[in-house]
Amino acid sequence: MPSGLDRDAIATAAKTLAASDLVLADVYQRLGPPPIWSRPATFATLIRIILEQQVSLASAKSTFDRTLTLCGGRVTAPTIIGIGPTGLREIGFSRQKARYALALADDVAGKRFRIGSLRHLSDDDVRSQITARLGLGNWSADVFLMMGLGRPDILPIGDLALVKGIAELDGCVYDNLDEIIQRAEPWRPFRSVATRMVWMSYLDRRKSSPQ
Question: For the HhH-GPD domain, which residue ranges apply (predicted)?
């Protein structure tokens, strides 16, 4: 299944969402349509997503940049395997994340995981393929689906910025993730775009960027 989002599609979807949701209408009026925030659908992007788990985006980017330098500008399965666990630890990977990165590299090198084929799969099948990898859960799969593959209807409910951002916009506290899912149900089939709008508002309050 091909990518469904580009800048024009995001702008159109954001306008549609703003017309049906008062909270998103306020975001749209204040900030306009959200950025595309895309990444290549590659092994390197999955390594960066591993680094972003449970740490600040700035910290993850710093470690990824060091990885990119050590890999000679191309983060690939062979270059990660070549660095090895000790080398990864030296540039900022935790022991656990080094293990995840090397397991992913082994799966790619052994052709047990073909990242290039993911663009042809359904959202659910992509999620199943990614979450079958060590250390990659639903949040990681959702970020890859949204940013790497441009899928239009992804709700990354494990994303703290999304959960906090919705609560801030709605001016309430949600007791559990099921309530977040229910709140976002009217955003179908553009939950990826609604998520970007929530992120945009969340980041604007803090004047930062997810990139």
Answer: 51-203
Is 2 inside any structural domain? no
Residue 208 pLDDT greater than 80, yes or no: no
The predicted model gives 145-174 an average pLDDT of 96
Q: pLDDT at residue 1 above 50?
A: no
Q: Which two tokens stand for residue 133?
A: 């990898």
CATH code at position 179: 1.10.1670.40
Q: Are 203 and 58 in contact (CB under 8 A)?
A: no
What's the rounded Cα separation, in Å, for the pair 54 and 31?
A: 28
pLDDT at 33: 97
Q: Is 169 in the same domain as 137?
A: no
Q: Are residues 64 and 116 in the same domain?
A: yes
> CA dihedral in degrees (8, 188, 38, 148; nearest 10)?
-130
Question: Which of 151, 153, 131 is closest to 141 using CA atoms?
Answer: 131
Domain of 184, in residue numbers:
7-37+154-206
With respect to residue 1, please indicate whether it lies within any of the assigned structural domains.
no
Task: Tell me how long the chain is.
Answer: 211
Give the number of domains in the chain: 2
Tell whether 211 is covered by a domain.
no
Q: Are residues 67 and 29 in the same domain?
A: no
What is the pLDDT confidence band of residue 2, given thresholds at 50, 70 and 90?
A: very low
* Each residue's pLDDT tens digit, 161-182: 999 999 999 999 999 999 999 9
Question: From CA 124, how far away is CA 130, in angstroms rounded?
Answer: 10
Q: Which burial class, exposed, middle or buried, applies to 68 when counting CB atoms under 10 A from its CB (0-12, 13-18, 19+)?
A: middle
